[in-house]
Amino acid sequence: MERNMKLIAAVDRAWGIGYRGELLCRVKGDLLHFKAVTSGHTVILGRKTLSTFPGGRPLKNRRNLVLSRSADFTVEGATVLHSAAEVLSALAGEEEAFVLGGESVYRLLLPYCDTAILTKFEGTFEADAFLPDLDASPDWKLSEQGEERVAEAGDSHPGLRWSVCVYRRRA
Ligand SMILES: NC(=O)c1ccc[n+]([C@@H]2O[C@H](COP(=O)([O-])OP(=O)(O)OC[C@H]3O[C@@H](n4cnc5c(N)ncnc54)[C@H](OP(=O)(O)O)[C@@H]3O)[C@@H](O)[C@H]2O)c1
pTM for the full model? Predict the structure, then answer.
């Protein structure tokens, strides 16, 4: 199986990623990290995650591939795809493509990812959307542990400790 996608997500200690359609935390440093990593590349996201972006618009400076089962759904500035197979053919030959979520799209495309770039929040929040626990998976190993940072005044949870970790698929 070809594995040329990278997953990028922000998780809490229980691998929660969202609650009632929204992110668990908004931390400016993490949003800047997300922008720096994904800018200039292809990003793949679910229709519900797109709807949480300002104005429901695709991300700038990135090729946006949006998954929907609806044949009628269109969005200006993005390509709408309807299955994992369509994603794979849209990516043929692409170096770096990032899976942005949400839960259903992470689960759908995790088998095609070789790397997961995770922002880990050192807290547990009420959540109804989750990423599979990669620590519990025999297929994945923690490869890089970034330095600890602290959410600032103006972030949703000032004082919250967080760091960026990279997981890689075991050979
Ligand atoms: N922490 C993070 O890093 C992060 C990142 C992104 C999102 N999130 C959170 O994740 C939650 C949303 O996750 P979600 O699973 O509800 O929504 P989602 O994955 O963003 O979008 C789900 C939609 O994608 C389409 N879809 C899913 N699987 C498909 C398939 N196999 N083929 C074709 N289309 C498919 C469907 O669209 P249609 O209904 O149009 O058919 C489905 O309703 C929110 O709480 C959000 O804030 C967290």
Answer: 0.97
